[in-house]
Amino acid sequence: MSSSEKSKTPSQNQLYGQSGKDSSSAYLMSIVQTLSSSADFEQREKEKTRIEKAYRESDKRLGELVANNYQDVTQILKAFNGMTKSINESRDKIRKIKEDLNSCKTLLHFKRDELRKLWKDGVEHKAVLSMLEQVEQIKEVQDKMNTYIANKHYLHATDMIVQAVAMLEGPLYGVDALRELKSDLINIKERMHETLIEELSKQIYERSLPSFSLQRGSQMRLSRKDASVWGWSDGLDSPRRAPKLEGSEMSSSKISYYEVKENLNSNPQDNLENFIAILTESLFALHKLPDGVERLKLSMKGSLNKLINTATQQIAESSGQQLDSMVNHVQPKYLNELLKLIFEQARYVAKTHQIFLNNVFRLTSSGMPLLSHVLYDIKDVWSEIQARLQILLSQYLDVRNTMSSRQQAPSGFDEPSMDISQYFSKKRPAKPKKVSLFRFDASQHAISVSSARQQIQQFEHLFSFQDALGLSDNWHIVKVCKPDAFNITAIYKPLRSFIVEVEEIMETSALQEFITDFVQNAFLGQVHAKVSENIEAATRVEEEEDGHKCFDALRNIIDEKTRRELGVPRPLLQSTVTVDSSIQELQDLMHDLPNYADQFLNMICNVLRDYKDKCNSAYRDIVQHGSDEKRIISSMWAKDDDISRFLRSLPSWRSLQPRQGKELDHTICSEEEMRALNSKEAIILISNLSTDESLIPQQEIITDVTQMRTVANVHESLEWFANRLDLFADSLTPQSSLAPLQEELPTELPPISDKTLQSLKQLVQEFKDLAEICLLLLHLEVRVHCFYYLLPVAKQSNYAGPIDDLDPDSNVLKLNKDLSGMEEMMTQSLQPKKFKYIFESLGYLVASILINSVQFLNKINENGIKKMCRNILAIQQNLTNITLTRESDLDRARHFYELLYMNPDEVLNAVAEKGPQFTLGEYQELIKLYHRSFAGNPVQVQDARMQRLHSVMEKGQNETLA
């Protein structure tokens, strides 16, 4: 090693700050070795100088550190001195203790027998003190138990009594002084489960029920306290449907294991779910859980009965009526409120049962097993609820009395399409035998006797089945309304919603089967019987003195009050209003029981069909006379296809249709067009009635104004009735309108069978057709009356008589009187536009009849012309009073007869100068009458005038065309 390397070694050790005894010694030895091994003095001096310098620097650095950390060093030194002192003192004490222990050991060795005796005495005294403490605790058990039970802290009470009995039967078994207390506590333990079961039943059937109040609008509201218990919204909102409950058959993975705790500082009833768990846990601790489950299962029927009775009393109190008197009043709204309250309470009861069952499964899955006949599930709860409701509903719906006097509803409406024209054919169908309307044994929908007996047996079996299940017990039900089968209409919708809710849990519902059996086998038949009875009374057939049967209901109209209530402008038949009321009741039933809409629509169709047959039969009795097959003329014309089609094509008829809604407007149809149409109508009628010299027999017209009023009433009634039915048919939805993937439409009524709906629309159309035929009959009958009275005016009267015979013809006076009577009748029975339709253009027809009748006059003189003009004037004045418009068409007839004052040559000259005002045939008949009336005119003169007439008329036509 070189000297330079040796000289570096100490400095490096110094720079690295080596300390400690070993390092210091090694460092010193290194310095000594360096100095001794160096032969050069100078080198030693340098090394010495370097060491001294390093020493001074270390000393300086040490001084600085001591100065900077003086306080810490002082504290360390003090602490070190104190520790050194404590260690020394401890050494002295240990030494002294060691010496004392050795002395004690020596002394104990000599006293060991005496110490062993004292230890045994101490153990005995300790055991006695423990037993005394236990006795004191046992003595306080009863007082604490009473306090816990009063505060409903049943879990603490149960644990206390179980521990106390276990202690008395264990460590304190031989204490004779506790024998009486032991007997009392054992008795308390044996009765404890009774209290728990009673409290559990109270929580399920009473405490769990929300406090409802029936307020305005009969809305039930949930109190804030009950809402907080269930964790729902506050009492300001209506209670929601109870949460859907899981089935009781739960797998072990679904059962939540948790420790049930009871807080002595809170009310255990504030949390219902935890309180039920506490009660269940208490029963489990008492080993009485199977008894509790069985007791709850067996008491379910009675508890539900009591619950329903309580709800009934609550409804009575909210209504402000005496419960005993409510049964005598028909007020199904209270039954509806009662069922809604019971439904809501049933949901809470089922919810609480589910909570209890969940706790039972939680405890029994790993502990005490239950026998199958003891355990029940949530489906058993819902089954018992449905059984109670069945008994309740059977009382309110009066099922037994309804079944004993029930009628069978028609099974369907299957009627082929019928042509209304068959009722107006020339050959009248044979009259049916006199039978009561809607007798089901005579209906095509009547059931056989065996089928009826079978249905009776079905319902008897239903009641026997209820008896077998214990459903028809001696439960006394105080009712809030009068029992009646029609109560089903007020409760069906909420009942159906409740059944749907039950079916979500149980898949099937016995309550649904009960309601279905009742509606189909009892209610539908009773509804049909009631409707049939009402309509039969309104459409009864009576036999008059002459042996002729008439439809008496066609003579009865509604009173003025009813007319104002219905808002109709003219009186309606009482029978029609009664039938409409019955139809409206069936429509309401369709909305009340939408699931049976098809059946009620079938009833409606059957009612309409029977009423239609009655109306058609009554119509035939009016338009058919005698025992032969003859009908009145207007009836034959009304059913004639050509005449009916022509009359329906006239603007005056089209203006009556409701869709057009306007009366005839001359801007749509000009006066020339109207005159042409009126002329065509007159030509058709004249061609049918004035072709021969025979007169119209009296039996071929309606001479009784009352019958015409009846026809008018039938028209107004059936038109009003058909319009209402049409609106009803349009509101129905056929099944064919649904898309393949569309189950239902958002409508109140479900889709209706296409076949039934088509039958309804066909019946509506037939009512419309009959109403239109009645109006056409009146329109034509007035015109036939004109023919009846005016044809004898020309055929039988003398117009070549003396000067004093200038009064109007007696037939004209009869016609005026007849028209005035019909005008008075139709004003009261028909709407103004229909009255106008009947009498409109009547003046033109009368003028045409009188002009056409000139051919039947044998002779006429100047006095006869004046008499004919007086006839025309009398008719014109009467028609003006009726129509309130001047009948200018009769001026044309009067002008026509005034031409007879002139000779034919003057007439021809006027035609040549001014143009023709009448037809060629009318001028020809005028010339013929002149030649018949004034003798001395040879035939050649008549032929010459005819030829001139032809030429003048042809010339006038050519000029017109040019």
At a glance:
With 962 residues, the chain is mostly helical. The protein is built from 35 helices and two strands.
Descriptive overview:
Component of the exocyst complex involved in the docking of exocytic vesicles with fusion sites on the plasma membrane. Residues 9-21 have a biased composition (Polar residues). Belongs to the SEC8 family. InterPro entries: Sec8/EXOC4, Sec8_exocyst_N, Sec8_M. Residues 51-147 form the Exocyst complex component Sec8 N-terminal domain. α18 packs antiparallel against α20, α22 crosses α27 (754-795) and α27 runs antiparallel to α28 (810-829). Mean pLDDT is 77; it is low at 1-19, 213-256, 413-472, 545-549, 660-667 and 739-746. This protein has helices at 3-15, 21-37, 41-68, 70-139, 141-150, 154-168, 179-207, 224-230, 272-285, 289-298, 300-319, 323-326, 332-364, 378-396, 399-404, 449-469, 488-506, 510-538, 560-566, 574-592, 597-623, 633-639, 641-649, 651-654, 671-689, 705-731, 754-795, 810-829, 832-839, 842-852, 862-883, 889-898, 904-914, 920-933, 939-961; strands spanning 541-543, 549-551. The protein has a two-stranded antiparallel ribbon with strand order 1-2. The protein is 67% helix and 1% strand. With 962 residues, the protein is mainly α. The radius of gyration is 59 Å and the shape is elongated. The longest helix is centred in the N-terminal third of the chain and has 70 residues, at 70-139. A hairpin with a 5-residue loop joins β1 (541-543) and β2.
